[in-house]
Design goal:
The structure holds 2 protein chains of 2 kinds. Chain A is mainly beta. In chain A, strands 1-2-3-4-5-6-7-8-9-10-11-12-13-14-15-16 form a 16-stranded antiparallel β-barrel. In chain B, 50% of the residues lie in helices and 0% in strands. By secondary structure, chain B is mainly α. Classes of the chains: A mainly beta, B mainly alpha. Chains A and B meet through strand 15 and strand 16 of A and helix 2 and helix 5 of B.
Chain lengths: 369, 117
């Protein structure tokens, strides 16, 4: 019976997602990721200011706290995310599909700057594994914060988390995330240090792949990200990651840029990465790849935000024709401080349109607990 | 004379652009790790975390096991190439088809008897 229940839950979870940050808000509010989130690199649980931003920027606002203000002890923060989606995928499946994307709860408990942090929930079932596979914890780590509640200073973390580097956009299908070493569920067991100030931030982590749960990150290595603010409305960053598995050695290096144009109320985010991939198994091979993404975001009114994105990926610089380019369009409607509607569409061009094209158009519903 | 020379130069140029040789080794490692892993082996698809339809392509070992069921080493059409080149709902990956160069390399590997499988 229990197996059937778990299988039923598992079948509901057909496509995954994770709760990440909206860095579109960062420079327009002259803040850092820690201005809105508990984690030093953003994403996941909101802090008090983040809840306030959710209330102020959404169409109808409302109490943005967990379950609209459920009483809880001061040492405990709770949250969670549920996402559903429906839409068209082209050309393989030119029909409407509907599926859950995410069902997770998050908790942070502790005092005096030391917290235990947990994100867990459902993931897609393993068709050759146990029914219990659908239940898992994507993140679980211990964190020490130098200045509790202040959003700056030194953070140390140990446990299962996403090694920090590059832009951390909410959409995992962005090329610099999908191909650039930050895949969905790419968390690993890591020791991570972050130092965050209003003018710069540094994140460094060493990691090993999850030896128990089937992991997306199959390698061991390290990652680093540095970001420097230039005035109130611009920032530049540098990123690097190395990962070594039985199959591959992969080295990532890149730059990021953020620019807010106040007169146009336009936020620009950009990232470019070079990836050196060496196959160490068999006879081996080494390829150089390139991934880039530019996102422009503009609020259309209270609770509405429009994103336009351009992506490029060169799979192997030695071979002509192995390129992908995409045009993304996302319309976010933050109806309340908890409820977001998103229409997202992508047109993907192989070899700049000379190959077969692909794409999708999806409507998503995101409810933050 | 000049227009004819210009057309000839253009034709030579276009031909040169379209005939860049694929330098990648035709091996199971390149097929699995450079082509199938980043496209078919994404976590929500055919990965070792999901084994969607019983297949995983995100590691060499997993891809080798999958391709033993998808690739014929004794001639005949391989199911792998059939789904990669199909039209409509049968094609994989559904939202982002493989480049022709990748399919050509997989075809060459299959034609060579799928060494390493």
């Amino acid at each position: 019976m229990i197996t059937r229940i778990f299988l039923g839950l598992a079948l509901l979870l057909a496509l995954a997602h994770r709760a990440d940050a909206y860095p579109q808000y960062q420079l327009s509010r002259d803040t850092t990721c820690t201005g809105c989130h508990l984690a030093p690199d953003g994403g996941g649980l909101l802090n008090e200011n983040g809840v306030g931003v959710a209330e102020q920027t959404s169409w109808k606002g409302g109490d943005g706290n967990f379950l609209h203000g459920m009483a809880r002890p001061s040492w405990l923060e709770l949250g969670g995310d549920v996402r559903l989606a429906s839409g068209f995928v082209y050309p393989g499946i030119a029909s409407v599909a509907a599926y859950p994307m995410q069902a997770e709860v998050a908790a942070s408990a502790g005092a005096h700057g030391i917290t235990v942090n947990l994100v867990g929930g459902l993931r897609r079932p393993d068709e050759e594994g146990s029914a219990l596979h659908v239940l898992w914890s994507r993140e679980h780590y211990l964190m020490w914060q130098q200045h509790p509640g202040e959003g700056h200073g030194l953070y140390l973390r140990a446990g299962r988390l996403m090694p920090t580097f590059g832009l951390r956009l909410a959409e995992h299908i962005v090329y610099t995330q999908k191909f650039g070493g930050r895949q969905l569920y790419g968390e690993a067991y890591a020791l991570a240090a972050s130092y965050v100030t209003s003018s710069f931030e540094v994140h460094a982590s060493g990691f090993v792949h999850d030896p128990i749960a089937s992991a997306v990150e199959h390698g061991d290595g390290g990652a680093i990200y540095l970001e420097k603010r230039i005035g109130a409305h611009a920032a530049i960053g540098a990123e690097g990651k190395y990962s070594s598995s039985d199959d591959l050695h992969r080295t990532f290096g890149g730059i990021t840029g953020k620019l807010y144009l106040p007169d146009a109320d336009l936020q620009l985010l950009a990232e470019a990465e070079v990836i050196r991939q060496t196959i160490v198994a068999g006879t081996g091979d080494t390829a150089t790849q390139f991934a880039a993404y530019v996102l422009a975001s503009h609020p259309l009114g209270k609770g509405l935000m429009l994103d336009g994105g351009l992506g490029h990926f060169t799979q192997d610089t030695r071979v002509k024709g192995l390129t992908r380019d995409c045009v993304d369009l996302n319309l976010h409607w933050f109806q309340t401080s908890h409820l977001e509607w998103l229409v997202t569409a992508r047109l993907e061009l192989l070899d700049l349109g000379s190959g077969t094209n692909g794409g999708y158009a999806l409507a998503q519903l995101h409810y933050r607990l | 004379m000049k227009p004819r020379f210009a057309r000839l130069a253009l034709a030579v140029g276009l031909a040169a652009c379209g005939t860049t040789p694929d330098e990648r080794p035709v091996t199971i490692e390149v097929v699995a790790l450079s082509i199938l892993a980043p496209t078919c082996g994404q976590v929500q698809c055919h990965s070792t975390a999901t084994h969607l339809q019983g297949y995983a392509f995100d590691t060499l070992d997993a891809a080798r096991m999958a391709m033993k069921r998808l690739v014929s080493t004794t001639g005949g059409r391989s199911k792998l190439l059939t789904v990669l080149t199909a039209d409509g709902e049968e094609r994989m990956p559904p939202d982002a088809p493989l480049a022709e160069e990748d399919i050509a390399l997989i075809q060459a590997w299959v034609d060579a008897g799928a060494p390493g499988l």
